[in-house]
Amino acid sequence: MFAFVQNKVLQLSSATTAxxxxxxxxxxxxxxxxxxxxxxxxxxxxxxxxxxxxxIFYSLIxxxxxxxxxxxxxxxxxKTYLSEISTSLLSLFFLISPIVIxxxxxxxMESWQxxxxxxxSGFILNFExxxxxxxxxxxxxxxxxxEDHKKIKVLILAIGVLTPIFMSNLASSNLLKSTFxxxxxxxxxxxxxxxxxxxxxxxxxxxxxxxAIFNCKSNQYSTLENITVDWHGIGSTTQIRLDSTNxxxxxxxxxxxxxxxxxxxxxxxxxxCFLLKKNIYFDSGDIEPNENGNSDLxxxxxxxxxxxxxxNLKLKELFLNGYTDIQPxxxxxxxxxxxxxxxxxxxxxxxxxxxxxxxxxxxTPLGIYKKNKAKNNFCSNIQYKKYEKPCxxxxxxxxITVKFEKVE
Length: 408
Fold this sequence. Notes:
The chain has helices spanning 2-32, 41-78, 85-104, 109-125, 127-131, 150-166, 173-183, 196-209, 291-307, 336-351, 373-379, 388-391; strands spanning 187-195, 215-216, 221-231, 237-242, 250-255, 259-262, 274-281, 313-324, 360-368, 397-406. The chain is an alpha+beta fold.
């Protein structure tokens, strides 16, 4: 007896997992047109567990529509309206409530198509019962000729179960998308952290396709906001999609190792952001940028002009933070803080001719750059005193941050 039960459980779990994998295949093939590769052992097991979960969830939905439709057909054919009134009302409730909910919440056309596909599945699964004169082939029905009908039952079952799956491109994509979102594989309006290699792919695409990539740059990772992530977490590839000037979205595969998906930031931020950052360096004690500083300043001015060419980008704010190294400012009656202030004023004067009059420029003189404590101690060591100025060259700078906003 135990072996029989164990065998049935294994058969049921295998069938359910297979059904779930069919649902995953439908999402990958019809909706995102992508399939994961280079799965590790752990990811393969996760994939199978996800398939089992999908299979159970999908089986419950199909089973609900099948059972409700089956009972109503049985009652109508056998005219047992009053003898099974409570079960009939329950079946009607399960059949009608999705329609009522869709009307109340003003469901989209896609949701209606998904709903219709499940109703169609329920009727297809009961096709043999509808066409036969005898009572419904169901737990209380005529099962004496089950072997004779086995092949057709398998065919009807396959068609009925797979109908919503293969209608997914038109009908049940909302259902599949929401399920994959709950699993964490899909994320809409996500904030991404991408490494420099992935950022280069995106920026090259931006130049070749003429689309604006909105990002906030930092040293190791750059932030992209309001991105749709089709697939992440299983396999070596993360797939994202971006809006384009054409009707079709741009689909981009990225290396998963260089992508981190962050959720929950959209509500606290603008729909999109775009930042340019650059440090403008100075020689010791100088108010004007050095040769490298002027070169970098020219580059960021060119970047500003390039980005403002996009019709949907507008320069909003510009931030200047001024720093000096730990060496005392030797000008009489002045301080390192005053030197930092003079430096940001000098950079502002060079930038202003290239900015619109309504752009807000925020100046923040911060004085001595204190983040490099270990290096400062090393550079100020008596043994290396004569190398102090070049050693501290990266502490003398004005940090420029240019903030754009998207114009709808």
